[in-house]
Specification:
Length: 148
């Protein structure tokens, strides 16, 4: 099976080195799958991946419990938590120097209008759009490259 490489992979990789990154987009466009590409040795239950849709992860998120010794933490679907903005900003303020944060959520995410996370935190917002057949243009070394 080929690995799909999204056009935003490299810019997001660069931004993650120094900023918190948000990936938003409509349902079923691959935000979660895209976030997996940043976690080394990703497999189900990996401690760096916390999903609001998983009840055990939800408890960890609500108690602001970060996994130990993870250079990157992915918060998936965290926008479903009413107080997610304050939680994520607090975690970034406390651990941003040692842990990178990738946050995924729906296209409805409203980051700043409710006094959410200030631009001074150094965030990048990236839209994840659906694939179209015309997006796939070449195969290289077992990878299906995408220009979407």
């Amino acid at each position: 099976m080929s690995k799909i490489v999204r056009y935003v992979y490299k810019p997001v990789s660069v931004d993650l080195r120094q900023k918190m990154v948000f990936i938003s987009g409509p349902r079923q466009v691959g935000k979660t799958t895209f976030s997996f590409s940043f976690i080394k040795n990703m497999k189900p239950g990996h401690p760096a991946y916390l999903s609001w849709d998983n009840i055990h992860d939800r408890d960890k998120i609500k108690s602001a419990e970060l996994p130990a010794k993870q250079p990157l933490v992915v918060f998936d679907e965290i926008h479903k938590f009413a107080r997610w903005r304050g939680l994520v900003k607090g975690l970034y303020d406390k651990y941003g120097g040692q842990t990178r944060f990738l946050v995924t959520g729906s296209a409805r995410l409203d980051y700043f209008s409710k006094g959410g996370i200030p631009f001074s935190v150094g965030i990048i917002i990236t839209a994840c759009i659906p694939f179209r057949l015309t997006n796939f243009h070449t195969r290289r070394q077992g990878m299906l490259c995408c220009n979407c």
